[in-house]
What does this fold into?
Amino acid sequence: MPFSKNALKVLESRYLRRNLKGELAETPDELFMRVAKAVAEAELAWGTHSEAEKWQAIFYESMKNLLFLPNSPTLMNAGTSLNQLSACFVLPIEDNLDSIFTTLKNAAMIQQSGGGTGFNFSQLRPKNDLISVTGGEASGPVSFMKVFNCATEHVKHGGKRRGANMGILKVDHPDIEEFVVSKTDEKALNNFNISVGITDKFMQAVEKDETWELIHPNSKSIIKTIKAKDLWRLIIENAWSSGDPGLVFLDTINAGNPLLPLGKIECTNPCGEVPLLPYESCNLGSINLSKFVEQEGRKNIINFTKLGSTIEMAIRFLDNVIEVNHYLLPQTKTIVTANRKIGLGIMGWADLLIMLELPYDSNEAISLAHQVMKFFKEKSLEASVQLAKERGVFKNWEKSIFYPNIKLRHATRLSIAPTGTISIIADTSSSIEPLFAVAYRRSHVLDGNILSEINPLFIDYLKKNKLYSEGLMDEVKETGYLQHIKQIPAATKNVFKTALEISPDWHLKHQVVFQRYVDNAVSKTINLAETASVSDISEIYLNAWKQKTKGITIFRYNSKNKQVLEKGISS
Ligand code: UDP
It folds into this structure.
């Protein structure tokens, strides 16, 4: 089995089943067999036993060879008594205690099963508003977020995974200023990503330097009038100092909402890659692009035939997941089986570019992204059309933008997830991110464990080009990057440029081009050097809106005490 040391560590600590004594009860091979079998069982609703067995073998091979991996809950739970297979959920919160605490309980159950939850708190009345039943004063959205945060802290995803939440507040909510500064204290909402729900109207008000009204969510009366630019400044200053808040662009999201008659989308899952309606969940899976590179003569090329059949297989796999999934909530079962949203994405983008010797910050890389993602879009559509022929269109098809022209089985098909853990299992670069460093320590992933790595592609590249030496490796370990090392040629330095050496523009260009072909959203972090300024962030956020990303997240190096990735491994 082709597993790296780090992959084995992750598999052992979180994914492999254990017996009652806590001893390992399966091997990685058995894990993939368990998942393949559970997912292929869906085939029996339409086909014979031998067809189900055929697909089981195909699913198993593609996972075992690390061509494709489903999201973590599918790997952890498929074929177990829990069988909750989705990574992403959105739950509604209405302006009453019953709704707030029902959702809190539902979120706890989802997180225990390994899923992440997103909430839009904008329906809640503002802080100090009257509560008619008691005559008391409301505590407001931010205080309830703290309650959710605390619950997550104690649920800890069934001991396997830390909980993840997305908290959104609309930009015209009266408590928006409190929300924007709510993560200044790092511990306060440590289990939340927060994003401001931005409208085009607000962005235009910022551009024109106009006033901005904060509106009561129930009475719709104006509670306060502020300058749009002042709120914008507060947002970007906080993003500068802590990475939060990010933005979600609600109008852009709804311009691409395939099911508007069901309601506007107002929320995303925790990492932002799937905008969802209340109670929807989404199953993700990612194709490891680094496995599709082949040598042709002296050049490396992408094997598009193999990629095409893997996309087709993955769409079928994710369709099956909807069939065999155990839904914790009846509302989720109803809406998920009616809309059948899935999110196929990629990992290993940076590794692919390295193997093709293309710098991340190059026009060639961007053109390749167009080519690869156009291919993903077309192939995933074809696969969904084919499955609609075999198994029927999704139930709400007639309410969708695809009616009556394209008979599809899934309301959405593509999504670029962070692949935080599955990329470790696949031993490839995560999602569409550039290398964070050539040598790095990855902490907090396994609660306390620290994983150290020198990028294996870098070692191969040095050996191939006769540049490898132990002394050089020591130098690289010291800082984790190459630009200052004299004996490394410029071309090598360009190919191995790391996240912080790549300008924010190029980060954003990648997000924009991927978003163009992806019907859900793209999870991407625009990594910034510690020296980046507040106005740099303003420009990135503004450009992201203009270029129609569905959301934007930045992270300035060292702006949090506790960060997941640290450059260099020798300290
Ligand atoms: N997620 C979560 N907890 C985590 C990591 C992820 O709930 O600790 C959810 C969250 O909804 C996120 C999604 O899983 O948006 C996908 O994240 P990622 O691709 O990193 O997950 P992986 O499948 O690699 O574990």
Observations:
- The mean pLDDT is 94.
- The longest strand covers residues 281-288.
- Residues 71-72, 87-88, 115-116, 161-162, 164, 269-271, 273, 284, 417-422 surround uridine-5'-diphosphate (CB under 6 Å).
